[in-house]
Design a protein that fits this description.
The chain is of the alpha+beta class and 141 residues long. 30% of the residues lie in helices and 27% in strands.
């Protein structure tokens, strides 16, 4: 049986901590704590920051959805700029930004993105059983 928690924040940097705190609370409500909670919260922060930073739709909202799927957690961050897809890149050592997707790739069990008619969604999956997969390809959700 799955449980889902969804919320929206305005597309403004000052609301990123709100998203991070709501993710942390949802995880705690499900009994997800420790290193996994820290990892999911960190990656939620990175994905929400990317959405807030790169979405070019004025007055947009960013939607965050966490789904507890029994043996997995699914984190989804959506925004209405469907054509600006995430592109990982190698950051120079002196760059202050640009490492968020690299962190997602390293710390999530799988991640990807998909386009809807009016939105894009970047997602990350996390195993609750301690097993990790190496596939980093989008799957139908």
């Amino acid at each position: 049986m799955s449980e889902t928690k969804t919320f929206r924040i305005p597309k403004q940097r000052r609301h990123v901590p709100t998203a991070r705190n709501r993710v942390r609370k949802a995880l705690a409500d499900w009994g997800v704590t420790g290193e996994l909670a820290d990892t999911v919260t960190l990656l939620a922060n990175e994905l929400v920051t990317n959405a807030v930073t790169h979405c070019r739709v004025p007055s947009a909202e960013v939607r965050v959805t966490l789904t507890h799927l029994g043996t997995e957690l699914l984190l989804e961050v959506s925004d209405p700029d469907r054509d600006r897809l995430p592109l990982p890149h190698a950051s120079a050592p002196d760059e202050e930004n640009g490492r968020g997707l690299a962190l997602v790739g390293l710390l999530a069990d799988a991640w990807g993105h998909r386009q809807g008619p009016y939105t894009k969604c970047v997602w990350a999956r996390f195993a609750l059983t301690g097993t990790r997969t190496e596939a980093h390809v989008p799957t139908a959700l």
